[in-house]
Amino acid sequence: MSEPVRRIGGALALLAALALPLLLDDFWLQTGLFVMAAVVGAIGLTLLVGRAGQLSLGHAFFAALGAYTYAWTAGESGGRAAGLGLPPVLALVLAGLAAAVAGALFSPISGRLRGIYLGLATIGLVFLARHLMVNAETITGGFNGRAVESFAVPGFSFSNSDPDYLAVAGVELGGLHRLWYLFLAVALLAAWIATNLVRSRTGRALANVRDSEVAAAAMGINVARAKVTAFVVSSAYAGIAGALMALAYGRIAPDVFGLQLSIDFLVMIVLGGLGSIGGAAVGAVFVVSLPLVLTQYSSDLPFLAAPGSGGLDAATVSRLLYGAAIIAVLLFLRGGLAGAFDRLAFRSAAAPDPSGLPPAPAPRTGAETTPTVPSPGVPTRSKETTP
């Protein structure tokens, strides 16, 4: 697909994302918040797994660290769970930094392991996070969790409690509308940074490490440093995603950040296409929105049963669809949805002329040389055409 077409498509998608909050109800607005938070986390994981070739099942740990860092630093003191009362903007930055530092501390282990062994090691982080979230009650609120301070910037609040009236095209922008635009800005910034990272020298080094560590070291690439960079960047993305999830929920609890969340992130990037920024976003839309939509409209779908009734509920059906989608991608779409889209665009660009006529040959100029057929033992000369 040509670059102008990509830019036009991106501009149309951006305009649609800006206009959707004016048309959607609260359910779809809330779903959009969860999706955009997951997009940020999925982009970070595809940089680690798809670009650097490091398998991680501990993404939920870094997301939990970012979520509770934001809730603790932005929360007010008092009550069961204390807080520092810092500005929410600073708290959001600290959420990413805390996760990045945790990723750097784990990097000595990630630098020595790879493949399934690294994946098993990162699972331990999820169980560690569960223990800390349940027992560090003064910070996390324990098993019942804690409330999350609403996001705000100086002079403007993103919550429904803001007394200032703000409307666009006759639609009053409440808390969900404002958070939509905040999440959209963060997701676009995350995608832009990741795209530039992939195209940079660091991104090419990560791809070489993924393909062959021995060959990368022979080319002068510091393999250990490249692995640390990938893990730190991915952890920072997960921390920001966790903070966005906390803002979307309004209250966080340990059950939100279990091993299932890490698996969901991995499913997102596999379905979208490993290493693809756009594919990670598409996979996040599918994985996050599917169970929410099925639950919302379960009463209108005859094949869905009520939760706990013993039949197929929305959560079970969504897991079955995840499994079927993963099998289909692994068998028929090795590059994921992003790879299938690129192949479809390439075929469309390479389609033959509908007239059936072959392309006209390029005109010859007088400065061109006419090749001669060499004869055995006879030197060859090129005969130049005279003007």
UniProtKB/TrEMBL annotation:
Signal peptide: none annotated. It is found in: Cell membrane. One of its GO terms (molecular function) is branched-chain amino acid transmembrane transporter activity. It is a multi-pass membrane protein. It holds the Pfam family BPD_transp_2. Residues 351-387 are annotated as: Disordered. PANTHER family: ABC TRANSPORTER PERMEASE PROTEIN (PTHR30482:SF5), HIGH-AFFINITY BRANCHED-CHAIN AMINO ACID TRANSPORT SYSTEM PERMEASE (PTHR30482). Keywords: Cell membrane, Membrane, Transmembrane, Transmembrane helix. This is Amino acid/amide ABC transporter membrane protein 2 (HAAT family). It comes from Blastococcus xanthinilyticus. GO terms for cellular component: plasma membrane. The keyword Cell inner membrane does not apply. The chain crosses the membrane at residues 29-48, 55-73, 85-106, 115-133, 179-198, 228-250, 319-337.
